[in-house]
Amino acid sequence: MNLSLLNIAGVGILxxxxxxxxxxxxxxxxxxxxxxxxxxxxxxxxxxxxxxxANGKINSAQSLAITVIVADTIVAVIAIALAVQIQRQLGTxxxxxxxxxxx
Amino acid sequence: MTFxxxxxxxxxxxxxxxxxxxxLSSALxxxxxxALLAVxxxxxxxxxxxxxxxxxxxxLVTVLFVFAIGIAGEEDTNLRSLVPKTLAGGVTIIMFLLxxxxxxxxxxxxxxxxxxxxxxxxWEQRSLDVLLQIAIIFSGVLGLLGLLAEIKAPLEYPLAExxxxxxxxxxDELYYQSIEKGAT
Lengths: 103, 184
Known about the structure:
The complex is a heterodimer.
Chain A: H1 5-26, H2 30-55, H3 58-90
Helix pairs in contact in A: 1-2, 2-3
Chain B: H1 2-19, H2 23-43, H3 47-72, H4 85-103, H5 118-125, H6 127-148, H7 159-183
Helix pairs in contact in B: 1-2, 2-3, 5-6
């Protein structure tokens, strides 16, 4: 396997995906979960741009990536607000304590 | 070589963001990873995405995280994870190997048609995306307003009864005081 730019980017995408999934699996703090989600979306962004670069259609990739960035930011903002409200209501950010949440 | 180093450091900083003990340093490592990712995008020729990633991913989201951690407070993040760490790591490594077996080595293709400029692509070919983005931003703002509105705790008694109970107590005190005065 030759070490072209494309293959390096591919390994980077897969490693970022791995780190994100690992974080989703082991983290118990709500903010940490949001951070792991952000890393996953960064992997998706790098994948989009790499695909555009490989096929010579970088501009279509850019327009798609901008849409993804907007949606991802809204998701992060809503998730952070939800975490702050949960901390206010229940006094904890631990995911385990949310299992028995009522109401 | 520079590109490989950039990708490697992005992955390392992302891992540090997951592993960091404190939430604040976790958010800051995430910002550093976004900044490096912006440089990678720039080197790949996606300048617009690089600017967006640098200003939104490394700027806005980090500020939001720091602000929210300031409100909610640092909490102990060193709890034992619900899934055993070896199991999580094993699943992740298996996923990595399988995906790399499918995807690598990557091949590039030459485009059949010459490409249009970014503004043409965004405003003409993908105008539906722009409408969708506007809708997403509006719904996000509305959701944020709904979430951050103060939720008031219900009163123990209705207000009138509470006020009446307080007035009765004051009257009782006055009565006892007058009895004590009369006794002396």
